[in-house]
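#struct-help
A.M.: can someone run this one for me? Single chain, 391 residues.
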Amino acid sequence: MALLGAAACQGGAAASAPPAASGNPASGTPASGTPGQPPHQPGAGWETADPASVGLDPSVLADLAKTAETGKSNCLLVVRGGKIAGEWYFRGTNANTEQDVFSATKSVTSTLTGIAQDDGDLKITQPASTWIPAWRGTPSAAVTVRDLLSNDSGRQWSIDLDYDKLIKARDKTAFAVGLGQAQAPGQVWAYNNSAIQTLDQVLQGATGQDPAAFAQQRLFAPLGMTHTSMSHDGAGNTEMFTGVHSTCRDLARFGQLALDHGTWHGRQIVSTDWLRAATGTSSTQLNAAYGYLWWLNHQGLVGNPLVATDLSQVGNQTSKQGRLVAGAPDDMFWAIGLGNQVVQVDPATDTVVVRLGTPDAIPKPPTFGPAEASRVVTEAITGSPGATTGG
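D.P.: on it. Structure tokens below:
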């Protein structure tokens, strides 16, 4: 969506590629559960806990639930220490209600790319043209998989292309691959749906599987995300930039995986090193708030985060110094989609927050987005996840 030029950030080369895959937890980043013990994670069902028993203020959570309800939410879910400490459903929904999470899909795409790299099927430093022959011998031959994940690929972008022609295209992958190269990689940051859609051809070529089937086998099924699927376009291609349908509880499992360094009941689903690179480090100096298709809260030159949630902002090319949510922790990160579909992960407080709501193309107050979700961390924490009182 928003194009952020390199003029304000000359010399803004992409950060170095991540280290080789590893399952070792990131230093200083706690996983859920007691230190030295396996993280507490759901089995077939979730364990619930009284908010005070996991160090959360019930009155603050109740106030947030009211804000979520008035803010056109369908559900709000708060997890701490691997247990559900608060869960609310609105507008006739329930725990099994599935909905499109729009651009939060991108963070699923990121994770699938990480799994493929862990498997040795690709390296994100490789040219995307390894799997996209049409780009060979063209300016797009310089585009790496990493550039596509960082949204600084320089691929052709406009509001008309991304929000009209791409959406209407029967074969979205062919449409996206067929666009031109507007800038050299690393020069401009753009929330570019078409560029991300080309990862369909990359992942299919690298893994030999339809990405939706790959997701089901390697991510959704192992996590018990029984109400989650990726969508296909009219030509049968997996949609990579949007189209995941899921529930609040399933997305909490996805957030918990990211919180717990990519492990699930002792199995490494995606490497710790991948998640460290995708969610812990800005992928480009052009936007401190962006990792590998995840939104970050790092201080620096920040691209307009509303490009992910509000169609009226897609042409907004402004950037500013700051962070995505002022006052929230630096290491907090999000999957974010149109209409403020939110999966929030905060490693330091061992919390996951999921909010799904109406798919408003242009959200108008009141709404419930990352700033509101962050209040679980900035206002509701009273002690450690093993606390016995609410403070």
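A.M.: thanks! DSSP finds twelve helices and 14 strands in the chain.
D.P.: also worth noting: Residues 1-31 have pLDDT under 50 and may be disordered.
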